[in-house]
Amino acid sequence: MGDVLKDTIANRGEIALRVIRTCKELGIKSVAVYSEADATSLHLKLADEKACIGPPISAKSYLNILSIIEAAKETGAEAIHPGYGYLAESEEFAKVCEDQGFVFIGPTPQNLGLAGDKITAKKIIKDAGVPVIPSSRGGVSTVEEAIEACNEIGYPVMIKASGGGGGRGIRVCKDEEILLEEFSVAKVEARAAFGNDEVYIEKYIAEPRHIEFQVLADILGTVVHLGERECTIQRRYQKLIEESPSPRLTPELREMMADAAITAARAANYFNAGTVEFLVDKDDNFYFIEINARIQVEHPVTELTTGMDLVKEQIRLSSGERLTYSFEDLKKRGWAIECRINAEDPDRNFLPSPGVIEEYHPPGGFGVRLDTHLYQGYELPIFYDSLIAKLISHDITREGAILIMKRALEEFKISPLKTTIPLYLKVMDDPFFREGDFNTDFIKKFLPEEDEDE
Amino acid sequence: MGEAVEQAKRIEVRAPMSGVFYRKPAPDQPPYVQVGDLVVKKQVLALLETMKVFQKVKSPVNGKILEITAENETPLKDDDLMFVIEAG
Asked: To the nearest whole percent, how much of chain A has pLDDT over 70?
């Protein structure tokens, strides 16, 4: 570890810009890497240097460890920031960076290995005294085993495919009769969808809230939290709107969950920035889900309410510096809301909407932050994520932040693409949203019936 | 028999939007279909990936694959030809 003078950003889009901006403020030279499809991307214009790392398909460029390492070597960078997505949580990538003498700005390879192994992570966190969602010990292969596991856990339960992810391959059973019906179907489905018919049982939490805590940890094991983020408004397990603080938490529950988040990070021997995710049920029970070992998309709501630049903290921590403040020192104040603006058509099952941006008018004014890689005339490549902008509002109160968000969404013009802006405008006007009264199914009422098969 | 051939119709399957064309469910798995395969209506022929969203390309008819004009793992534009099927 030592001073970072030049940083390679192994990512694209808004998060590459985000990291480059902080590097500039710290006097660190930045190297943008890019695929052949990104030659006109904004991150190349802001960076000090650039290096092409391969063809458009991510597997051959942004996921290509060798080309990224090569680019970092050729430009003489000491550090590599992975952003989020792509290689950010690759244990192998972090290990290669380390072995090749680069500072990986993020958690340790061991942290990434554990975060990726959800069963082991849950066990370690549970042993540390943090509640986890009750589940079967590993896979269940026969219906008898399933019944036994369900009796232990208590109904309702979910049958989940061991090889599944992203919310696919889940069946909810409210009693044993339904379990008997669904068990064999779930196995057949798991095999068809994931090539592996192993399933496991997990307690079903009805109408949960998804609330996560930002943590930071230094090299000597000091852990602080920076408060929570409410991420309940999702579609198919993809977050759409996040805010901080959460309108759901009482001060007592917040304190208990913050303590649990710090305990979880300590138990995982965590380093650098990370997020501890929880589900909260209607009776104020909370359950650990996982540790996200990266800077997250929704990190700006924490930045605006704590005044801390999380990327700066990541770089500082990776340079071996210490954490010398507590959550209380930060005097978290105000309310921040983020809308993830995607190039998708909410009226047509969120079908992606690529193309050239002919008209572009970004919002501005009091309480508005916009993290985006868009500009007028930019052609959105078909190869990458549909996230085109993160619009964040900030005010003293939640009500104020909602009014600023609504005004900013109305100002924001991006055409002819379809975006999720019209959907968010409806949400900002929704009386339940305004009351902070929602669960993970909230967004469904704004959408036409979906064909799950498509 | 002759009548059946005369009834056969060439059906074109075109890309519903721009995206990357995949003939296989995963790189280490066999293609969904080959030229000469008999397919049924709604059978998956390929995947089209646009901005990380995968759409299944399904056969509009029962029939036989005559041509596969799109190449695996290459980008297609909206309305590019992917398959020609002989409906039967």
From this structure: 97
Closest-CA distance of chain B to residue A350, Å: 9
Q: Which residue has the tokens 């800077």?
A: A295
Can you give the residue range of the structural domain that contains B71?
2-87
Contact A334, A395 (CB under 8 A): yes
Q: Comparing C-alpha atoms, which of A263, A255, A24 is closest to residue A32?
A: A24
Nearest in space to A391 (alpha carbons), one of A13, A10, A14: A14
Is the complex ipTM higher than 0.90?
A: no
Of the residues A172, A203, A234, the one at which a domain ends: A203
Numbered residues of chain A with Cβ closer than 8 Å to any chain B Cβ? 56-57, 343-344, 350-352, 354, 380, 382-386, 454
CB environment A77-99: b (16+ within 10 A), e (fewer): bbbbbbbbbbbbbbbebbbbbee
Catalytic residue among A12, A229, A254, A294: A294
Backbone angles phi, psi at B18, to 5 degrees: -70, 150
Per the domain annotation, does A251 fall within a domain?
yes
Query: How many CB atoms lie under 10 A from the CB of residue A430?
Result: 14
Q: The domain spanning residue B37 has which CATH number?
A: 2.40.50.100
Same domain flag for A273 and A313: yes
Q: Which domain holds residue A303?
A: 209-446
Return the CA Rg of chain B: 13
Element (DSSP H or E) covering residue A161: strand A157-161
Question: What is the C-alpha to C-alpha distance for residues A301 and B27, in angstroms, rounded to an integer?
Answer: 39
Q: Write out the two tokens for A36.
A: 């052949």
| pLDDT tens digits along B34-87 | 999 999 999 999 999 999 888 999 999 999 999 999 999 999 999 999 999 999
φ, ψ (nearest 5 deg) of residue A231: -125, 35
Burial of A379 (C-beta count, 10 Å sphere; 0-12/13-18/19+): exposed
**Catalytic residue flag (residue A137):** no
pLDDT of A47-75, one tens digit each? Answer: 999 999 999 999 999 999 999 999 999 99
Distance in Å, alpha carbon of B55 to nearest chain A alpha carbon: 7
Q: State the DSSP H helix or E strand holding residue A362, giving kind and residue range, or none if neither.
A: none
Residue A6 φ then ψ, to 5° = -145, 135
Domain boundary among A87, A105, A123: A105
Q: Is the dihedral of CA A178, A184, A188, A193 positive or negative?
A: positive
Residue A336 has which token pair? 């921040």
CB A373 within 8 Å of CB A14: yes
Cβ atoms of residues A343 and A354 within 8 Å: yes
Chain A residues touching B50 at Cβ < 8 A: 352, 354, 382
Asked whether residue A163 falls in the same domain as residue A215, the answer is no
A228 DSSP β-pair partners: A213
Q: Which residues neighbour A61 within 8 Å (Cβ) at sequence distance 6 or greater? A: A33, A34, A35, A36, A53, A54, A55, A67
Location of structure tokens 């066999």: B30
* pLDDT over 60 at A454, yes or no: no
